[in-house]
Amino acid sequence: MNFQIRDAITANVHGQSAAEFKDIVEDAINRGEEHLLPGLGVFFENWWKQSSPSEQDEFVQKLEKIFAN
Fold it and tell me: What coarse category fits the chief subcellular location reported for this protein (predicted)?
């Protein structure tokens, strides 16, 4: 069986509204369960691919600040 997690996650959230995506992200973070991390990773990967270089730079600068301590 060739299970593609990216494809499965993408299919499961296809057509979701912004509010539904926010709920999904907040729920995954609040639960703190590691099995939910791949889904967030797929969200991030797709965001990264669609973001401009300046958006990407801003994001990684925020990460640098967050993980500096």
Answer: other
